[in-house]
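queue> holo job accepted (adenosine-5-diphosphoribose)
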Amino acid sequence: MGEIELPEALVKALREVRSVGVITGAGISAESGIPTYRGRGGIYDDPDEGDRTVEALSAHTLESDPDRTWRALFQIAGAAANARPNAGHLAITAIERKAARFVLLTQNVDGLHRLAGTQNIIDIHGDAFHVICTACGNRNQFNDPRTGGITSLCLNMHECMAANVAPRCPCGGVYRPDVVLFGEMLPEDKLARLYAELLDNPPDLVISVGTSAMFPYIVQPVLVAAAAGKLTIEINPEATEISDFVAFHLRTNAGEALPMIAAAMAGTEEGKG
Ligand code: APR
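queue> job finished
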């Protein structure tokens, strides 16, 4: 991908931005080596494989055959466990530090935004490193090989992956991943934050990065911002449902465009608002 230049009109508009909302999907982690679900090279690219993965990651499969759900999850968590934040993740943290008001809405469960130091995160689909016992409700987490420190309190991800079966709580119950599976509702508290910080009070700038924009709760914040005359940007090498509604569609990689956007934004003298 050749070096892109931000359009002059965009650079000028970015200087006036004080509040920012960023929406991310699997595409922002592609440059960290984690496969996307859709688009070129995505997990669902092979329709049969894709259907099997969606089936495995469904609530009814967790109920009937938890080992199968966990085998699919260990594929995703395994790829995440070897991944590090890339320039795109780090640029979002830099944007947060420059903005007077900031919120990140992510669909990703790989924990890379947290590792990159971003603070105000709505991880609407949860986090693959956290688990809840389906019998007693005990919450636990996998040690995160990316931050080292296997503590006795954590589950050892590599041991669980080697066993390739659903991890179990000391009470004997099966742990479920703290992620939203297909067929499950989104967590009410996170939806409430999405409404409050993105829909009821759209930021000056909304950036959609690396998402195929499949879900209404991901599309809505961009459409609401555009309708309110806010600045909207999509960063995706491919076109999506929202490409015709944003002010600027940067058809390039997240790791290339986000650092340029961060650089073009003025820091806020008054600091965090
Ligand atoms: N930079 C920016 N975008 C990229 C890059 C990149 N380097 N590489 C790929 N993309 C784009 C692809 O063109 C695609 O449009 O990222 C998008 C990834 O789309 P999906 O794989 O559908 O991921 P996402 O939008 O996050 O999926 C939403 O669907 O399967 C469920 O729960 C799962 O959270 C996931 C949700």
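queue> The chain has two domains: 1-34+85-125+186-273, 35-82+126-179.
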